[in-house]
Amino acid sequence: MKKYTTILAIAILSLFVSCVKDLDTLPLNETDFTSEKAYENAESYLQGLAYINAYWAFVSQNDAGSSDIEVENAGQSELCRQYMILNELTTDELKTWWGDGYSNPLQYHSWSDAPNNAMVAVYTRCMKGIALVNEFLLQTTDAKLEARGHSSHKAEVAGYRAEARFHRAMFYYLMMDFFGNPPFALEENIGGAVPKQIKRADLYEWIEGQLLDLVADGSDMPSYGAVPYPRPTKGSAMALLARMYLNAEVYTGTPQWQKAKDAADAVCKMGYRIHDNYQELFLEDNTTNGAAEEMIFAIEYDRDHAQSWGGTTHLCSGAFGDNLSKGLPKALGLTGVTAMHPDTWDGYHIPDDLVARFELQGVTWGGGDGTFGYDRASSDKRAFFYNGNQTQDFGTNENTSGGWLCWKWVNMDSEGNIRNSETVNFKFSSADFPVFRLAEMYLIYAEADARLNGGTVTDPVAIARIKELRDRAGVATPASMDLDWLLDERVRELLWEGHRRVDLIRYGYFTSASFPWTYKGGVKEGNVELDSYRTIFPIIPSDLIANPNLTQNEGYKQ
Predict the structure, then answer these.
(1) What average pLDDT does the segment 278-282 reach?
(2) Residue range 40-61: average pLDDT?
(3) The pTM is what?
(4) pLDDT bracket for residue 58 (50, 70, 90)
(5) Do 347 and 94 contact (CB within 8 A), yes or no?
(6) DSSP letter string over 497-555?
(7) CA–CA separation, 433 and 107 (whole Å)
(8) Which of 153, 166, 426, 491 is deepest in the core (most CB within 10 A)?
């Protein structure tokens, strides 16, 4: 970790000293670290890349309980956690009764330009991640390698540089998606002028160019299988292109359905495979149980070596309270288990109107502990819900028993072993979080086909791929699949994986009163229209103050 820390410190320092204009001066204390010292050993290049790869999960140079950005809670400063929260808590997929200062404005659509942990974390982490990559690219040029006597490593470092560029494109994609018109910094901004603001459509074009270069024949980006999981490959870059093309009309005003279909198809043909057991995708051993064959790009967690109060720990602990922890073992028929989860935060719920989009059989309420609340054996296998001792309606603050509970992310491995208080580092999850997986590419391919063909899936390949997902879920494939059906299928397949907000925006439903959900706009029935500017979030105030080149997004006060 020492070398990772050194490289991180140099990159973050570079981000913030650009106004000082003296980055080129060497430290007066010759024991202080410089880039030359950080990269004096050839193995430092891979270690620097490793830190970039892990930046979704790390919150500081110390431990999981310490944050290096200004938020009240270290776990709430993690990029992966808040990426999921911004995409899900603002929609019908996730509710919480916690009522704290950052969750209520998001789920009730009342956020402003005031600091909010989720927005601050995503914005700041992405910009710091971009700084990490820019510094890495500056320190890994052929000239730098030659000067350090590392010329024999040029080929492998070229691959590292390509992976780093993917990460930068990914960070910029998040900035474009969430914040619309962010600051745009490249290598030349390290030690130079503060970055200028870039328009959303222009950033889209830049990201597209970067990704097309990475997926081109002969590029230095590793092909699928050429580097160990979960490092990114050409498949990761092509998957990001597919997702961007699917939402191109949102970002640029011009749809790109054929490009979305072609990019998704290219990923589907790279060698990834749909894992035969859906639940195993989200278990503690999803790194090693075969589920990784479906993962195109994932964030790795390990309770012993990559701990975080964000990631999949918050998805597991946040969903479990006494009702679920004590009732689920009975529902699963686990003998000798009195409580399922060793660390219960008791906060995350799902409203009944969202669960109704799943094909559940025999739904009942008021069954008490030990009942799922539906016939799970004959229902969609992607449904991991529980309503024992819950009320059907989700309430507001202090209502711990409102709505459904979800155990999609659970503290169990594929052999049925349960993480409990006797497990070392038992409070942390080891399940990896999939940012891209093959099932999403199947769904992109099908939706793009429907968009190109009057709103209904017609391509036999698309139909066959959806059937593969439905067969795994144990439910029949309908004779006809239109766009609204596909939107529901995305919920069933991708619940709590960070997709819902942009899906609803793409469909025109996020702000529309014609698509209500529980407490949309703070109204229980949710049949309200949201202001159109809420499809993007505000530039965070601290960056507006620090960078005079930035203008606040429309709808948010300057």
Answers:
(1) 98
(2) 90
(3) 0.94
(4) confident
(5) no
(6) SS-HHHHHHHTT-SS-TTS--TTGGG-SS---PPPGGGGSPPPPHHHHHH-TT--PPTT
(7) 22
(8) 166
> What's the CATH code of the domain at 149?
1.25.40.390
Residue 88 maps to a domain: yes
Report the C-alpha gap between 251 and 199 in whole angstroms. Answer: 10
Give the per-residue pLDDT at 420: 85
Any bridge partners for residue 111, and if so which? none
**SS3 of 252-313:** HCCCCHHHHHHHHHHHHCCCCCCCCCCHHHHCCCCCCCCHHHCEEEEECCECCCECCCCHHH
Mean pLDDT of the chain: 91
Statement: residue 21 has pLDDT above 60: no
Of residues 514 and 303, more confidently modeled: 514
Query: How many domains is the chain partitioned into structurally?
Result: 1
159: which residues sit within 8 A by CB, 6+ positions away? Answer: 220, 221, 222, 227
Q: Which of 327, 373, 380, 320 is nearest to 346 (CA)?
A: 320
Using left for φ > 0, alpha for ψ between -120 and 50, and beta otherwise, residue 302 falls in beta
SS3 446: helix
Q: Which residue range(s) make up the domain with 32? A: 2-221
Residue type, 467: K
Has residue 15 been placed in a domain? Answer: yes
Query: How far is 89 from 118, CA to CA, in rounded Å?
Result: 10
C-alpha 414 chain-centroid distance: 23
Q: What is the C-alpha separation between 109 and 501, in angstroms, rounded?
A: 12
Is 106 a domain residue?
A: yes
Give whole-number Cα distances, 64 to 52, 75, 253, 320, 432, in Å. 17, 7, 41, 20, 16
Integer Cα distance of 81 and 83 in angstroms: 6
CA distance 295 to 291: 7
Radius of gyration of the chain (CA): 23
User: What CA dihedral angle connects 200, 205, 211 and 215, to 10 degrees?
Assistant: 150
Residue 78 lies in a domain: yes
Q: Element (H or E) spanning 406, and its range?
A: strand 405-406
Q: What is the end-to-end Cα distance of the chain in Å, rounded?
A: 41
Residue 64 has what pLDDT? 66
Here the tokens at position 493 are 């397949």
Least Cα distance to 438 among 283, 236, 280 occurs for 236
Which range (204-208, 366-370, 533-537) has the least confidence?
366-370
One-letter amino acid for residue 220 of the chain: D
Give the confidence band of 398 by pLDDT, cuts at 50, 70, 90. low
